[in-house]
């Protein structure tokens, strides 16, 4: 769901709609770590948060990668694979969820491209709600004996919104750059990224355009041991238990004379200024059963609500797992399933990822 916007003041007519993402998008591992992923930046699914991930090779090879996630959302622009009526399962007034293909990201060598459903609460039949999809392509490179990774990622965000007003569609180009630094002979890793702002005019009698603010962030991760990959060894391993802790700090740019996307769809537009915003994320990752089970948990705050103060900040808690299933025939890889839950005062957002261990 898009953030409700932003603490607005004043009575002047808004000129633009400001948009942002409140909940962590991306792979289920990123959600389980509460978005504290800039310094980790592993796997092609991390390329939106830190394009330097395009230069990272967790498996020590240049093989192609394909990441995807099945995400439980409202019915929207992204094709629904099947629906699940929760009220019939629990005999309670719970919603019906549409299971959608949340994101597809492909990486070959040092290049990558992706399609990511950032948020979908848009019903294509009624034209109500909001949806954001990002299409991206980027390039990364490792330097200084693979201790430094850099990456760049141009992207297009497509925003679709409707409700009490006629639906509009806006295309917002943006550019992301990122770096990741592995400290030699140390468990510490650092990362940073920056995404440029953009404004697109729309044909609407109330607002002039839709605005995407700039975003920057830094992160740190510390780890012990090594995450297991591939089949379980015949002999027990003496490797240390894998544990990783990460923390991220994100800053969003200010905006003047804007309203929220949700207020616009409800025809409740009011103008206001949004100050520089801050969000915090922290996550812990443990592998209690190597080659079989990983556990993640984290906490993060919504960016538009922080404003250098804890007053009125909405806090999210996340929990996720990776469970290894069966090994692929004639392969060193096994299928893995990764359920995750993101909970806040707004409710619970479940998701599930499928991949290879």
Order of helices and strands: EHEEHEEEEEEEEEEEHEEEHEEE
List unreliable stretches of 5+ residues. 1-12, 70-79, 305-309
| CATH topology type | Porin
Largest sheet properties: 14 strands, antiparallel, barrel
Q: How many structural domains are formed by the residues?
A: 1
Overall, the morphology is globular
Distance between the termini: 30 Å
What would you give as the CATH superfamily? Answer: monomeric porin ompg
Structural class by secondary-structure content: mainly beta
Relative strand content? over 45%
How would you name the oligomeric state of the polypeptide chains in this document?
A: single chain
**Proportion of residues in helical segments:** under 10%
User: Per CATH, which architecture?
Assistant: Beta Barrel
Tell me the radius of gyration.
21 Å
Highest-level CATH class: Mainly Beta
Number of strands: 20
Summed over residues and divided by their number, the pLDDT gives a mean of: 78
């Amino acid at each position: 769901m898009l953030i409700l916007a932003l603490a607005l003041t004043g009575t002047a007519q808004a000129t633009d709609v400001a948009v942002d993402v409140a909940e962590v998008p991306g792979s289920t591992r990123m959600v389980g770590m509460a978005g504290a992923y800039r310094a980790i930046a592993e796997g092609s699914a991390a390329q939106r948060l830190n394009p330097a991930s395009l230069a990272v090779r967790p498996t020590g090879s240049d093989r192609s990668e394909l990441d995807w996630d099945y995400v439980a959302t409202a019915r929207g622009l992204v094709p629904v694979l099947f629906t699940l009526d929760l009220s019939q399962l629990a005999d309670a007034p719970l919603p019906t969820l549409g299971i959608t293909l949340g994101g597809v990201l492909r990486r070959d060598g040092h290049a990558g491209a992706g399609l990511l459903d950032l948020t979908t609460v848009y019903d294509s039949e009624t034209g109500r709600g909001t949806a954001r999809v990002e299409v991206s392509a980027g390039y990364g490179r490792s330097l200084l004996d693979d201790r430094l990774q850099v990456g760049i990622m141009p992207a297009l965000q497509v925003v679709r919104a409707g409700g009490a007003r006629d639906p509009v569609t806006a295309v917002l180009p943006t550019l992301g750059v990122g770096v990741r630094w592995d400290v030699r002979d140390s468990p510490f890793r650092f990362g940073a990224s920056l995404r440029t702002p953009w404004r697109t005019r729309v044909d609407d009698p109330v607002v002039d355009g839709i605005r995407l603010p700039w975003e920057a962030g830094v992160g740190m991760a510390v780890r012990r041991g090594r995450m297991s990959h591939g089949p379980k060894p015949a002999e027990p391993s003496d490797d240390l238990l894998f544990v990783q802790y990460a923390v991220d700090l994100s800053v969003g740019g200010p905006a003047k004379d804007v309203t929220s996307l949700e207020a616009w769809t409800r025809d409740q537009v009011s103008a206001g200024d949004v100050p520089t915003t801050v969000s915090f994320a922290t996550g812990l990752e443990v592998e209690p059963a190597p080659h079989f089970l990983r556990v993640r948990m984290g906490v993060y705050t919504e960016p538009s609500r922080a404003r250098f103060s804890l007053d009125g900040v909405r806090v999210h808690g996340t929990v996720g797992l990776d469970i290894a299933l069966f090994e692929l025939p004639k392969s060193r890889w096994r299928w893995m399933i990764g359920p995750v839950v993101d909970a806040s005062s707004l409710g619970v957002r479940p998701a599930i990822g499928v991949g290879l261990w």
